[in-house]
Amino acid sequence: MLVENPEGRNLVKIGVVGGTGYTGVELIRLLALHPKVELSLITSRGEAGTRVDNLFPNLRGAVDLHFEEPDLARLKACDLVFFATPNGIAMTQVPELLDAGVRVIDLAADFRLKSAETWAKWYGQPHACPHLLEEAVYGLPEINREAIRNSRLVANPGCYPTAVQLGLAPLLVNHLIDPARVIADVKSGVSGAGRGANVQTLLCETTESFKAYGVSGHRHHPEIRQGLEVMGGNPVGLTFVPHLVPMVRGIEATLYVEPCESFDPQAVFEAHYSEEPFVDVMPAGSLPETRTVKTTNLCRLALHRQPDSNHLIIVSVIDNLVKGAAGQAIQNMNLMLGFAEGEGLTAIAPLP
Amino acid sequence: MLVENPEGRNLVKIGVVGGTGYTGVELIRLLALHPKVELSLITSRGEAGTRVDNLFPNLRGAVDLHFEEPDLARLKACDLVFFATPNGIAMTQVPELLDAGVRVIDLAADFRLKSAETWAKWYGQPHACPHLLEEAVYGLPEINREAIRNSRLVANPGCYPTAVQLGLAPLLVNHLIDPARVIADVKSGVSGAGRGANVQTLLCETTESFKAYGVSGHRHHPEIRQGLEVMGGNPVGLTFVPHLVPMVRGIEATLYVEPCESFDPQAVFEAHYSEEPFVDVMPAGSLPETRTVKTTNLCRLALHRQPDSNHLIIVSVIDNLVKGAAGQAIQNMNLMLGFAEGEGLTAIAPLP
Amino acid sequence: MLVENPEGRNLVKIGVVGGTGYTGVELIRLLALHPKVELSLITSRGEAGTRVDNLFPNLRGAVDLHFEEPDLARLKACDLVFFATPNGIAMTQVPELLDAGVRVIDLAADFRLKSAETWAKWYGQPHACPHLLEEAVYGLPEINREAIRNSRLVANPGCYPTAVQLGLAPLLVNHLIDPARVIADVKSGVSGAGRGANVQTLLCETTESFKAYGVSGHRHHPEIRQGLEVMGGNPVGLTFVPHLVPMVRGIEATLYVEPCESFDPQAVFEAHYSEEPFVDVMPAGSLPETRTVKTTNLCRLALHRQPDSNHLIIVSVIDNLVKGAAGQAIQNMNLMLGFAEGEGLTAIAPLP
Amino acid sequence: MLVENPEGRNLVKIGVVGGTGYTGVELIRLLALHPKVELSLITSRGEAGTRVDNLFPNLRGAVDLHFEEPDLARLKACDLVFFATPNGIAMTQVPELLDAGVRVIDLAADFRLKSAETWAKWYGQPHACPHLLEEAVYGLPEINREAIRNSRLVANPGCYPTAVQLGLAPLLVNHLIDPARVIADVKSGVSGAGRGANVQTLLCETTESFKAYGVSGHRHHPEIRQGLEVMGGNPVGLTFVPHLVPMVRGIEATLYVEPCESFDPQAVFEAHYSEEPFVDVMPAGSLPETRTVKTTNLCRLALHRQPDSNHLIIVSVIDNLVKGAAGQAIQNMNLMLGFAEGEGLTAIAPLP
User: Are C238 and C228 in contact (CB under 8 A)?
Assistant: First the structure.
């Protein structure tokens, strides 16, 4: 299945379905920089025939492909296919690809929830292949690394869920906090809203302003709660408030929990994440800025207490398009294909 | 004491001590637009001799003054003096001005805390006139309107404290929430950090990034707690986390509290603030953006609940330089001088 | 025709056609603050029935109207009607309104060009009422003040044309430069592109980037050239390159011209604009920032020479939504209705 | 001189003098990603003893060094030393390093001008080693590639000079334009002003505004003119106006020239740059955005004409910190050390 490239290396053949959004272009950029894969085709119903670097001039000189009409036959010739499509698309095509022996990573939400009923409620349509929900592995390597290695279908986590779950895992796994009182005050750059033509995300509507949104119910709420409940084996009471930050990339989650016993959070987190290549527990007393993880696959964490307060405060930052989407998808691909986990993910955040 | 202006109106004479920061220039701008006052002098040790509109070209054509050396004799000839100085300056000059019959509004923190000991702890120096702390009225008109009318010394509240206290007052005054568990996740534009030459607030250090800061202890923490404890008459357990937003103006506070009984928050807030000219309780289901209050003296509030969560969520937005500083100072001045409370505060936020 | 308002003042009745764009909301904001007019109706086909302050929450408490279906009968009952519609709408309705004795200010481009043929070429459709092009007065008060006072139909200038023409008028009127070599390198904030749902003006597409656009031909090119040619009575060779600045409001024009004789530009400009309320010739050696005119109707100008260069450099800044659109429309309204020219235009730019 | 690294590769030893500014941190980031060099020491008088990744947390996990006191003995042990210091520092230390056989790339301006007199005039001090000015090679590889390969001292060009010279070289080298009338209207992100504590570059002073600056004389003016005059062998009349864009990275130069004969600019540029790895002549009709070169070493160019205008318009964009500083320095290092010219410069601009 491997092709021979000009330098004589064997390159894995990759397909990308739906590469015209921000997750898609970031995925293509990372794949173009990856030393062990070959980007075979990129499909887009709307842009079929357009040069990829015409839509995304940052790729000039790096990607010499046109968007193509989706074609299952051609996708079946790939070793691994990414779906960077709107929710509800992947679930209609994945079964046939799996049957053809193609591995799949879905960057949308189609396979993230285990309950088809919950999925239908939050995504407004019945699930097209509920039988795959159990098999699909939730692609958070820090939780599910071994399962990911062995899976043929990975559900790449949402951006908020990545930041929140990595910030809470050491506490829930070790049963150190009251699971009934978890507050996640999360903030995201505007790229999280996608590349659609939308008055709400115009520069003139979002810059120089700050707001909470989706307070009455956000699709990442059930995804986060599902993940947190698996960690500790208990029901979790989650209050989750997303906010829109006037910037392009970055998520910051400020998490408020109540410890149910006395412990040293810094030591707990450092021990839990000591072997993780993409989780950086900051030194005690410091606070991470989202810009320090921009374009990288890192999650940076810091722990804080305040005098006269019962709450433990965890701060978690990621780049929503990388560790929160395309980078994590590459990390999952590396695991699935037996590459070094960090292959192609060596970027250092530019500063400033 | 009143002067006759060309149109024959009597104008109150105003002095501004320390007008070179962002609070100062906003105060000068609002005073220049106020129909009933005359800006008599603006002092600045560092910029004495410089035309005000040379430092702040937005004031060209509106303010025809130079910064002057601080001169108590000239300040004593004013009817009312604002201090827009760094913390610790006003307390050295206020007693003499009060003795001369001048009314004072301090936009810094010198008179905000009732305890000289707490003040000394947080501001790193002993208080110069602790005997005035009791007399000084905390200038939040929605709480202390009558006391402000009758005071000669008003301590203008901090920006975060204004947004947080207005968001919690109806709940604490009516004993509707658990005072031991109050979380204030607050976010501010960069202008809150002032106009000093500082690497931390360069555009290149702050734009396109988001971070929490001051998590281990912020000077507004004791000010907020003092205010909240007065409201309900009970000790308050406050967790307070400020964040820096890559924008100039605006504060958003997302407040998490636990109701101790069942009630209709929308009705409680609407009743509580029904007569307030500068507090806007948004319709149920809506969420305020900071930009809708920019350059105005308004505080906009919204109330939200989430299914499966015990928390009540209150969102509060203000312009940190207006309702959080200079505008509230004008509101206090209007009360102290018997003007209509909204005089000179009629701006509508520009959008976009 | 005048109505009696509660305070007993006679208010002029104003209609706004098409108030859902950025020019529209800024016009409504300025009208709401104007002491001598009453906003009678605001029409919008797309938003009919929506409260105006629901679409634009900055207007909560200031504007108590709903958008209404366009209705010529109701518009005819107004004293003056503004069109803040896309190009090509006003020309279909203006004749009937003029016949009914209503005065009209069109903020779109329908009546800006004198040649119906040129208009058709640049705007892609035949002009609907070419007979009115001669009568329509080009609403740049610094050029056409008396004609505006006496007109019933004013074509409000474009934003770039306002900045460029004010920067060149003293030179062309006095025949001081080579008209064959005029370069206008102009830069605009994103609000100039309007409030339409458009991928190109998303925050993620425009922030943290800078680009030239429309270099091969921009609709403001013929408008500017027409204006410049009237000033000097000669053909003008104009090179005009617009750029997009990652900010909301503001236009800066850097103009390069070649003097054809020796003169003192500072003295020429100061003399030419000495009586103008909204043109501020900055002191020699200074340079204007767009933020100093934000929300104001001002144009600030500066003149510069470089050693070893033949060019005279003129820098001109305006707020594209105020002096470049809605503010200038109010200025024109004031002239047409006999109000003080600056009525309702007293804002001072907020800084920061 | 080469050291053996753990993987058995020979790594060249690199020193960086003055790594605390934006040019410095970008240089360190690029060196940390370069496969053939080893970062031996980074000096800083002000930050000696501080971990590099404490000042620049983006480098956590990538750079395990402390800033050290400048120590010529240790610098002499390096193969190549970069100076990322303020102007006037390198010239005091370079002679001794050259004598010790160390190669030097100066990212400041000390060796850019050939005339010591002109240097003294623009930089306000006498030059410390004028005898090296002739030897120093101006490090614009597209002009001086062979000389750079063979030099021991390279003067890395300024950011504006890089964008402007690359935009004009094909025209001047081929004598296609009037050299007496060259206009460069250039715009830069704020990072060009450096990381110093400075009120003028605070977020609150620069965001949401646009201005020209340095119009009466900018230090890059003589550098550009020197470069342009060498190209064509004729005196050049240059008008050069820099502007500040409210963004971090990026330079756009819009260049206006007058052709002295008829030719096809697109063909001229494509031919001239056909072999250049870091110059991308865009397809006819397109316009480059600065964001498409962010974090890359690319210069993108486009050519435009307007009807009824004599001017040829060239648009040139670079990342001021990469092709305009640290990236070009790496490119020069690669040439000097015999590496592939693009080694370590493979980044693709993130979008968005």
Answer: yes
pLDDT at B1 > cutoff 90? no
Q: Tell me how far apart the 2 most distant CA atoms of chain D are, in Å.
A: 65
Chain A residues closer than 8 Å to C208 by CB: 248
- C-alpha radius of gyration, chain A, whole number: 20
* Residues found in chain C: 352
Phi-psi region of A175 (alpha: psi -120 to 50; beta: other; left: phi over 0): left
Beta strands in chain D (DSSP E): 3-4, 10-17, 37-43, 67-68, 80-83, 103-106, 137-138, 153-155, 182-188, 211-212, 238-244, 251-257, 279-281, 299-305, 312-318
Q: Do D316 and D253 meet the contact criterion of CB atoms below 8 Å apart?
A: yes
Q: Whole-model pTM above 0.90?
A: yes
Side-chain-side CA neighbours of A203 within 13 Å: the count stands at 25
Q: For residue D192, is pLDDT > 50?
A: yes
Q: For all residues of chain A together, what is the average pLDDT? A: 96
Question: Pairing between strand B312-318 and B251-257?
Answer: antiparallel
Interchain pair D187, C256: CB under 8 A? no
Query: Residue A2: which pLDDT band, with cuts at 50, 70 and 90?
Result: very low
A334 vs chain D: nearest CA distance in angstroms? 20
Task: Provide the sign of the torsion angle of the four alpha carbons B282, B286, B288, B292, taken in this order.
Answer: negative
Q: What is the pLDDT of residues D217-242, one digit of tens each?
A: 899 999 999 999 999 999 999 999 99
For C328, the 3-state DSSP assignment is helix
ipTM for the complex shown: 0.96
Q: How far apart, in whole angstroms, are the C-alpha atoms of residue B22 and residue B15?
A: 17
Which residue of A lies nearest to B212 if distances are taken between CA atoms? A287
For CATH 3.30.360.10, list the domain ranges present in chain B. Answer: 160-320
What are B266-283's pLDDT values in tens digits? 999 999 999 999 999 999
Locus of tokens 């207005």: B166
| Bridge partner list, C242 | C186
Q: Dihedral angle at the C-alpha atoms of A196, A202, A203, A209, nearest 10 degrees?
A: -120
User: Which residue from B minimizes the CA distance to A312?
Assistant: B239
Q: Is 3.90.78.10 the CATH classification of the domain at C3-135?
A: no
Give the pLDDT of residue B308: 80
Q: Up-side HSE of residue C214: CA atoms within 13 Å toward CB?
A: 18
Q: Pick from A118, A137, A300: which is nearest to A220 by CA?
A: A118
Encoded tokens for D194 = 């450096």
SS3 content of chain C, % helix, strand, coil (to 5): 35, 20, 45
Please indicate if any CB of chain C lies within 8 Å of the CB of D282.
Answer: no
Q: Are B72 and B96 in contact (CB under 8 A)?
A: yes
| Cα separation, A252 vs A320, whole angstroms | 9
Measured CA to CA, the distance from residue A59 to residue D351 in angstroms comes to: 9
Question: Subunits touching A (CB < 8 Å, at least 3 pairs)?
Answer: B, C, D
- B133 burial (CB, 10 Å; 0-12 / 13-18 / 19+) is buried
Q: What DSSP letter does each residue of D178-244 carry, written as one string?
A: -TT-EEEEEEE-GGGG-SS--GGGBHHHHTT--EE--TT--THHHHHHHHHHHHHSS---EEEEEEE
Q: Tell me if A196 and C199 make a contact (CB, 8 A cut-off).
A: yes
C230 phi-psi bin (left φ>0, alpha ψ -120 to 50, beta other): alpha
Q: Is the dihedral of CA B202, B205, B211, B215 positive or negative?
A: negative
Q: Where in chain C is the domain with CATH 3.40.50.720?
A: 3-135
What is the CATH topology of the domain spanning C160-320?
Dihydrodipicolinate Reductase; domain 2 (3.30.360)
Whether pLDDT at B162 is above 90: yes
Judged on CB neighbours under 10 Å (0-12, 13-18, 19+), C35 is exposed
Q: Give per-residue pLDDT as tens, D308-352.
A: 888 999 999 999 999 999 999 999 999 999 999 999 999 999 999
